[in-house]
């Protein structure tokens, strides 16, 4: 059944059915390396909590891979964001500029500090924060810009760093989705004052749950190491001069993370290979906009997202429901922050591009471990939906 009605907010999640033995999740972890071996070492040596050989090893190896001097491992990507902001001294009365087109953890991490998130629309060219609209949102209270490298495509970091320098603002990159991405020869993780990664199960590198802040600032890294551990002072145990948190990563998480980091290039390159296959199979469908890839960047395609053009006869939600009935899981794009019930009344202004992305976007199965057969099946199922709807403009 083809539903032509389009709503700003997505319809409820369609039930995923197994179809002819086929069920393809939108994403699942890949464990192709030393994960089991390293975790076994934690178990065998009894170092299963937040001390042990793998933590510092994972921090330094991951930081090096993303071009940074220091890494601070934490419990997840959200706590990475909060820790970075807190360690930079951001707090009540301050403002932090973020895109409205992002995941809820971005504004929430700002709110946890007592500061206020300030929203900017995204650009359709990259689906990232529109750097040309940042300056108009800067006030005396602005302390930082938090760009998000959406679905693995780097933001326009030259423009963002230039604005930050002009107004003396910190740049905290939300790199939760961009392990291995590159912007004009510089690795994501090494450009801003700090970059925050998530290692949730669907990320290119996972530790189950986990996160890391990377930075080139030694003092900031040392400060974050203290704050993430209840801010225990060096002078005496149980002596705390500043507010700390327990954001410690475990040795088991770090063991998995180290094994994954050893394979970062392979894991990211496979994601790119999958995206190229989707591109070549879907490029003939006029109603679809394929994911962005601008000049001078490496997009690692954390998720393979597509947009349905406004004039498409088939809506995004119809596609999702039809794919789910054939065993293919998808996700809608983010619902912008200014539309979230939890932020009702916080923001004014118009964010048309973010609303367009929200209404028309979905991402397809994107696991690193997808097979050629999986991708061909997904693409053919999509083509069939358009074919049945009378492919093309009326
Ligand atoms: C852009 C962005 N920021 C932050 C996060 C939060 O990461 P976590 O779920 O590890 O807390 C995510 C998670 O998917 C994300 O996509």
Describe, in plain words, how this protein is organized in 3D:
The protein is α/β, with parallel strands linked by helices. Helix 3 (77-87) runs parallel beside helix 4. The radius of gyration is 21 Å and the shape is globular. A 7-stranded mixed β-sheet has the order 1-9-8-5-4-2-3, with helices on both faces. Strands 10-12-14-13 form a 4-stranded antiparallel β-sheet. It is built from 11 helices and 14 strands. Helices cover 33% and strands 13% of the residues. Strand 6 and strand 7 form a beta hairpin. Pyridoxal-5'-phosphate binds at residues 76-78, 102-103, 105-106, 148, 174, 176-177, 198, 200, 211.
**Class based on secondary structure composition and strand pairing:** alpha/beta
Biggest pleated-sheet summary: 7 strands, mixed
What form results from the Cα inertia axes? Answer: globular
Beta-strand portion reads: 5-15%
Bound molecules: pyridoxal-5'-phosphate
Distance between the termini: 18 Å
Radius of gyration: 21 Å
Unreliably modeled segments: none
Question: Which whole number gives the mean pLDDT?
Answer: 95
**Biggest sheet: strand arrangement:** 1-9-8-5-4-2-3
What is the helical fraction, as a range of percent?
25-40%
What string, H for helix and E for strand, traces the elements in order?
HHEHEHEEHEEEEEHHHEEEHEHEH
The DSSP helix count reads: 11
Give the total of beta strands: 14
List the helices and strands and how they pair.
Blueprint: H1 35-45, H2 53-65, E1 70-74, H3 77-87, E2 95-99, H4 105-113, E3 116-120, E4 142-145, H5 157-167, E5 170-174, E6 182-183, E7 186-187, E8 194-198, E9 211-215, H6 218-227, H7 251-261, H8 264-282, E10 288-289, E11 297-298, E12 304-308, H9 316-325, E13 331-332, H10 352-360, E14 361-364, H11 372-388
Parallel strand pairs: 2-3, 2-4, 4-5, 5-8
Antiparallel strand pairs: 1-9, 6-7, 6-11, 8-9, 10-12, 12-14, 13-14
Bound molecules: pyridoxal-5'-phosphate.
Residues 76-78, 102-103, 105-106, 148, 174, 176-177, 198, 200, 211 line the site of pyridoxal-5'-phosphate.
